[in-house]
Design goal:
By secondary structure, this protein is mainly alpha-helical. Helix content is 53%, strand content 4%.
Length: 277
Amino acid sequence: MPTREKLIEFLKLRKIEGNSKLWLYQIEIFLEKYLDYVKWKINKETTLEYISMLQEKYSIAFYKKNVYQIKLFLAYLGTEWQSLIKLPNDPEYVPKRVALEDIRNTLTHFEKHQYYRQIKAIVLLGTTSGMRAEELYQLQPQDIDIEKQMVKINHNPNIGQTTKTQRSRISFFNQDAKKSLSEYLEYFNNGNGLGVLFGHSHLSHLFRDSPVKIKDFRKFFSQEWDRRGGPTSIKKILMGHSVKSDVDLQFYNFQSEDDLKKIYDRVMNDTPLKPAS
């Protein structure tokens, strides 16, 4: 089978695993750039040459993502020498501190923007729900329950919605987010010209110079939850962390939707995030 056909088959198998469209697209780019370099002929010497080039040119994080996908593809092709390619250890990582003032500065930064209603909605939803950026981009209007202040984060690859753990979950948002989402949904449903609720390319472009990026909303939620003394186990549930290494969450700690909502309200519904008008 020609290499291009093998690549197509490999990507189809990765899709079945439940990977998002965006991540599949990124994997395809990684592999096509590699295959272009080796002229679509798998060769150990040119492969190692390409990997060395990546290591010199890019950050460790990007390099590892790239080479890991190359290794998976080579393993799929049955290339034995791919096992000799070892990835470096992760560098020490210090999370960025994101405080309440940073979120308020971000909202002020966009105050006069044409799409302020959309921007405010994603800022307040992201910072009060703990959702991943990719999960925000995949949201559909019907996933948001304004009255219950609840958002459904679905894992359903058939409609382009995926989660990192491949499990659906719920989270919640506070009163500020409820008001902003209500205003935005009314705007969205009345011919505003926006094709999707929170378009990835559209919003990534808007936030490129903002004080806080969309990927940082989740950091803020995690840090703010702890600053307010919220229970770590509930934060893990709401944020959709993997519970494979958490015996308590795997076997003992089950909370109903009502339980989660009561705890969430106690922790997150007391301090407004947006600046006073």
